[in-house]
What we know:
Layout: E1 8-9, E2 12-13, H1 19-24, E3 26-30, H2 41-51, H3 59-69, H4 86-98, E4 104-108, H5 116-133, E5 136-140, H6 144-150, E6 154-158, E7 161-166
Parallel strand pairs: 3-4, 4-5
Antiparallel strand pairs: 1-2, 6-7
Amino acid sequence: PITAGDILINGESIKNINPVQLRRKIGSVMQQTGIFPHMTIKENLEVVMELHSINKNEWARKIDTMISMIGLSNDILNRYPIELSGGQQQRIGFARALITDPDIILMDEPFSAIDPINRLTLQDELRALQETLHKTIVFVTHDMDEAIKISDRICLMKDGQIEQYDTPE
């Protein structure tokens, strides 16, 4: 729960939004992807749609759209996360976050465990996707170069307080 201040989404305080409804408006991509290791990639995507009560008739279309959008092919759908590279796993995590078309996407150091070459590629792909999707993405990183590269606004925080908030420039 919030201990001080407020967070507004489209002008509405999150204090006035049911926590379950609030969570359904936010997609998340974490450092360790959050994909279930005991499920295939297809099952990982389906479980999110089931939790959001998306009509099963739309699942195949949504999965095809997401897999294409993140630059992977459908042949990975029956594979397990351990069979994918770190970059591919992170793309699946992003697809899971996007598949319900949330208002906001929270990304908590999603590229920190990725090798430098794939990290740069994923940063470029995120920028390109953002230009298409026009979503609000809150991207947490400790890497200033990454923040400058992918952000249109940067908020520097120290001990839970905002120190500076502005454009990368």
